[in-house]
Model the fold of this input.
Amino acid sequence: MAVGTVSTRILTDIANAIRYQAGVSTTYKPREMAAAVAALDGTDAGDYQAQPYMALESGVLPESVFSDIAGAIRGQNGESTLYAPGEMAAAILALEWDVGYKIRALLLDDGTLEINYYERRTSVTGGRIVQVFEIDPAGYSSASARSYDSIKLLVKKVYIDSTIGSLGLTNCAYWFNAFSNCTEIRGFENLSGIKTATQMFSSCGSLETIYATSYTNAITSGSSMFYSCNRLVGGTDGFVPTMTSAGSVCKLGAGGVLTDPNNDNRTWFWAHFYENGEAVLTATSTPDATRTLRASGRICAIGKYVGLGFTPWDGATGPTHRQYLTSVTFAADMATFSYLNLIYLFYSCTNLASVSGLGNLSGVRSMRYTFSSCAFATIDFRGFDPSTLTDLFYTFSGCSSLTTIYADSTWALPSSGITGSQCFYSCRALVGGNGTAWSSSNVNYTYMRIDRAGQAGYLTAA
Done:
């Protein structure tokens, strides 16, 4: 950190400005001044006494002293101004405080948006306040009408404080609309009883979790409440909302998008998408440091995903578009998961030519659209236990290059509890191990069996 000479008059002016705002006679060392500025809250103790300039005209201080003071000033006024040391006293004297009980949205330095109801600007989560906005309790008619709309892309998490719960709010329309980088909401139980939630979470494409310890659903207007929330997964049974899901799915339990933090059934695996086109699916969150990474993200193991938009290869354009996915490896540690849904996982990955490691999976339930429209000619299910499968709907549909599906000779689907129409739709090149050729009349899941004498199927025992 740079060290420089500074006039002691500047330090005295800063200290006097702090004393004036706090109404105190306290003396401050240079390194104490930033904390003193951050502690100002508009309270005047009534004992202001200015200190005279020191006889020593200059001294040597590290640059961090002034950068910390400047940061504390910005934390108080919510501005982004860069202050020279000689400007800081005036900036402190210009501070005004937001007092009185009101609903505030506090943007903290860690990307959390904290919503609370206190007499003063206060963060109960402990973060440094960067910007403050007042929320209109009457609600908003559009996202752009929000006081905090300008910082929507800066929000990574939301915390709704318990002080909100007693206010009886009824209209939260557009509150979190287009918070596209926000991954979780905490304290949603404090919005129990709201009636209007139109587009409340619309276009929150990174949102995975809405935590609520309890919730009473009274929503009467909630159109497009969860539109394009492709990654949002409920904590009970992995429910994922559709584009048209409205307020009725805003609940705890089966078929709900909320998650009780004390009863979260979800587990997560990671997908690391590398520069060479390979995706490695693993229980390990850390990608291989020796390889160039395109993108990485986690996927809910029990998630009942309803379309694209939840994988690292779902970019709209550019290097993370699914067309660049050419191979997939399920790592050995995927065997640690006892419940897996693979719904839409590689849907329309039209250049995916190689899949390995399927034998490392167990407890797989749904494979709805898993490999639809992929490019591989062969796929190997040896070591894969099919006994838990429940859904093979359109699993291989559109795999026009697929010729061979290998499986253990003991392969057997469950005798009940499984569906899967159009499993092999348009798999025109597919031939079973005993010579059974694909037919448009036999495209349902029942042909996901070993092709042998007396039993036609599309699998080859190996």
